[in-house]
Amino acid sequence: MVSTERKWYVIRVISGKEAKVKEYIEAELRQDRKLAENVFEILLPTESRTTLRNGKRVVIERLSLPGYLLLQANMSPEVASTLRFIPNVLGFLGGISNPSPVRQTDINKLLGNSDYSELNNLVKTPYKVGESVKVIDGPFTGFHGVIEEINTDKYKLKVMVMIFGRQNPLELGFMQVAKED
């Protein structure tokens, strides 16, 4: 069965060779017209990390999926075979001969393009801003506070808690607090 629409696929590559494989595929796209008509986008998912070196903040780009490459293509057996025999490629996620496409929602999550309405439909937030809660887990167990912010992506709450006579913000998970009656 030949796919006739653009779908995302995951190529397994030798770890550390991701950029080389991407360059090689891009070079093949310039030479092979059939491949160029069926391959649309090649991505190396990266994430930014901030570290301190010698007292200075340094931002480092790192691969978020070492050993994998994302590819948007119309996958046919010919295209799959061509990509499979590129140096340093181990195969496809889902099988060598019949690669499985990845859902667009999963690709959006990897790339950080999640649709917030989609997330809100999936997650029913049990808390509301301004609601009083009691901390039931962690080092601040027993403290009472008021919810200031809700982050449904990370299942976290920003709760203002009175500690030593001052309001202090705490970032707590949904499971670390309970509603007060």
UniProtKB/TrEMBL annotation:
Which SUPFAM superfamilies does the record cross-reference, listed alphabetically?
Answer: N-utilization substance G protein NusG, N-terminal domain (SSF82679), Translation proteins SH3-like domain (SSF50104)
InterPro entries recorded: KOW, NGN, NGN-like_dom, NGN_dom_sf, NusG-like, Rib_uL2_dom2, Transcrpt_antiterm_NusG, Translation_prot_SH3-like_sf
Q: Which SMART domains match?
A: KOW (SM00739), NGN (SM00738)
**Sorted alphabetically, which Gene3D superfamilies does this protein's record hold?**
2.30.30.30, NusG, N-terminal domain (3.30.70.940)
Which keywords, in A-to-Z order, does the entry hold?
Transcription, Transcription antitermination, Transcription regulation, Transcription termination
Q: What positions does the domain KOW occupy?
A: 126-153
Q: Which residues form a coiled coil?
A: none
Query: What top-level branch of life does the organism fall under?
Result: Bacteria
A single Gene Ontology CC annotation of this entry is: cytosol
Q: Which residues form the NusG-like N-terminal domain?
A: 5-114
Q: Which GO terms describe its biological process?
A: DNA-templated transcription elongation; DNA-templated transcription termination; regulation of DNA-templated transcription elongation; transcription antitermination
Name the Pfam families for this protein.
KOW, NusG
Write down the CDD domains for this protein, in alphabetical order: KOW_NusG, NGN_Bact_1
UniProt function note:
Participates in transcription elongation, termination and antitermination.
The record's section on PANTHER family has: RHO-INTERACTING TRANSCRIPTION TERMINATION FACTOR NUSG (PTHR30265), TRANSCRIPTION TERMINATION_ANTITERMINATION PROTEIN NUSG (PTHR30265:SF2)
Query: Which family is it part of?
Result: Belongs to the NusG family.
Q: What is this protein called?
A: Transcription termination/antitermination protein NusG
Biological source species: Prevotella micans F0438
Q: Which gene encodes it?
A: nusG
